[in-house]
Amino acid sequence: MKGFKLSLMASFFLVLLSSFIAIATPGKVLASFPSPSSCPTGLAFDGRYLWLADHRTAHLYKIDPATGKVVADVVSPAFMPAGLAFDGKCLWVLDMEGGDIFRLDPKTGMTLSSLSAPCRSPKGITFDGKYLWVVDDREDKIYQLDTGDGTIINTIPAPYSYGYGLSYDGRYLFVSDRGRDKIYVVYPRDGSVLMVLPAPGPFVSELAYDGKYLWCVDYQTDRIYKLDLTIDAPYVRSNPKEEEVELLSVFRNYGPGTVTELDVYFAVPKNLPNQEIIGEITYSPKPVEFLTDQWGQKVAHFKLTNLKPGSSLNISMKAKVRMYDTRWFIDPDKVGSLDEIPAEIKEKYLADGDKLQINSHYIKKCVREAIGNEKNPYWIARRIMDYIDSKLHYEMVGGWDTAPTVLKRGSGSCSEYSFVYISMLRSAGIPARYCGAIVVRGEDASIDTSFHRWVELYLPRYGWVRFDAQAGDQAIPANKAEAIAHMPNRYLITTIGGGGSQYLAWSYNYNVALKAKGPCKVYSQQFGLWSPLRKK
User: Fold this and answer.
1) Which of 79, 172, 351, 468 is the most buried if burial means most Cβ atoms within 10 Å?
2) Is 485:236 a contact under the CB 8 Å cutoff?
3) Whole-number pLDDT of residue 536
């Protein structure tokens, strides 16, 4: 969108600098000034001035954005004006009480025409150059309307409940959400949420785009904010969380035979954009060696012998970590073509695997159904993700089946979602790999027995970006967006792999192999123990 800038150098840093700290936050407040009234609702930009609606005074105020001074005002045609939009000549004023939309000549103050809103609780309104758009905070929908008679042209889902403000920048809709204090960048064709920005206040009631900056008016703070949309770094980090995590592998041999050899492999975490390792990682017992597999994953190898009947042992890896809520900002129109993907990335991450079967006729058919004639890698990835989520539901059924089997069955675990997604992405020409993590479950002091796996895909000009098909299997667009180019601060990534590993096989976090003499019943359990670090 206009104002969003991501240099090739920033993209280069995204790929190469795992511990890079972003220095700019999209949505940064550049300026603010008080609203001229105590109940501000609508906001619009006429090419030179801001217009503000207030439902307490039922007036519309013309404001100089450079000074915040009111230069004129007119009486609102609505008793309780809400959203405002400017169509190049006139203001459109949304009445939240009567449900009407009035077209007003701001020079004369005369109402020229009116329409009926298509919904019960209209709040925000904007103009896209031809049509009006209206967001409803009860029906959770956004309507595109003909300006002549109010005919509904299109309806898309609102990003989340409590959609209020609405604006348009020439390509995308901006939608404010007073429930989560977010501003969503929305694709107007189908309602897909592309980016998530922080709101400058707790109740952004309307938005206006001036060609470069986004303006917001907040009903609770009674202020108007000017937001910078520029991105000068590949991602932003916030809300650091410091924890100690222990990956514990427990074994008990109930016999009657002897476990003669026990090989255990722990994936070793490292510094990444979303995480930092604090100090040294400790192990008990000490590994016999450290190894690196064909995907570049480092593992600690433990080798034990002669686990007698009735005996038990624990293997442990402890790390102090700092995890961040990390968000990447991807402009689909700035994503490069498939031809721009480096050859070495293609060679490694477009390969087939026994869990993937990317050349399966069934996988190829599903890819065609999912993407049609789409060429943009970002939208190919989104369409495949939507397709998978329409075909699968989450279910842990005990095994890790192949991608075609999982798709045909219609259910899968997070790992199986990942196998399907990698298979379809690679079949479509997009390099893909998986990440595995230990997860904070609820409270900061918690235990993780399930772990989690998801997909990273390679977007030319941006690099590797998280797309979690299983976590993104959500009906609400804003919830789906949280699983795309976003990492919450509760995941410690231990494993990054492209397929079967000589040490971890198709597993992540850990892998176990044993040999026994005689029949053995062996209990084996792995889990992550989390403890928040206490600040001194």
Assistant:
1) 468
2) no
3) 59
Cα 62 to Cα 48: distance, rounded to the nearest angstrom: 10
pLDDT of residue 233: 77
Give residue-wise pLDDT tens across range 47-56.
999 999 999 9
- What's the whole-number mean pLDDT along residues 401-410? 96
Average pLDDT for the chain: 93
The pLDDT assigned to 25 comes to 63
- 172 near 128, Cβ under 8 Å? no
Under DSSP, the state recorded for 232 is -
Q: How far is CA 79 from CA 102, 117, 150, 390, in A?
A: 11, 15, 20, 44
220-229 pLDDT, tens per residue? 999 999 999 9
CA distance 421 to 356: 9
Cβ partners under 8 Å of residue 373, min gap 6: none
pLDDT in tens, 169-195: 999 999 999 889 999 999 999 999 999
Mean per-residue pLDDT for 495-504? 97
Domains of the chain: residue spans and CATH: 27-229 (2.130.10.10), 237-325+505-532 (2.60.40), 326-497 (3.10.620.30)
For residue 380, give both structure tokens. 């190919």
Distances (CA, A) of 190 to 142, 227, 322, 507: 10, 26, 37, 36
Q: Angle between the 414-427 and 377-391 helix axes, to the nearest 10 degrees?
A: 140
Confidence at 23, pLDDT banded by 50, 70, 90: very low
For 103-111, which contacts have Cβ atoms below 8 Å and span 24 or more sequence positions? 103/147, 104/60, 104/74, 104/77, 106/46, 106/51, 106/60, 106/62, 106/74, 109/74, 109/75, 111/77
Do 414 and 406 meet the contact criterion of CB atoms below 8 Å apart? no
From the CB of residue 292, how many other CB atoms can be counted at a distance below 10 Å? Answer: 11
SS (H, E, C) 78-115: CCCEEEEEECCCCEEEEECCCCEEEEEECCCCEEEEEE
pTM for this prediction: 0.91
Residues 364/425, Cβ–Cβ less than 8 Å = no
Taking the alpha carbons at both ends of the chain, their separation in whole angstroms is 45
Give residue 176's Cα distance to chain centre: 17
Would you call 244 helix, strand, or coil by DSSP?
Answer: strand
Looking at residue 405, what is its pLDDT? 96
Is 242 buried (19+), middle (13-18) or exposed (0-12) by CB count in 10 A? middle
Give 350's DSSP letter.
S
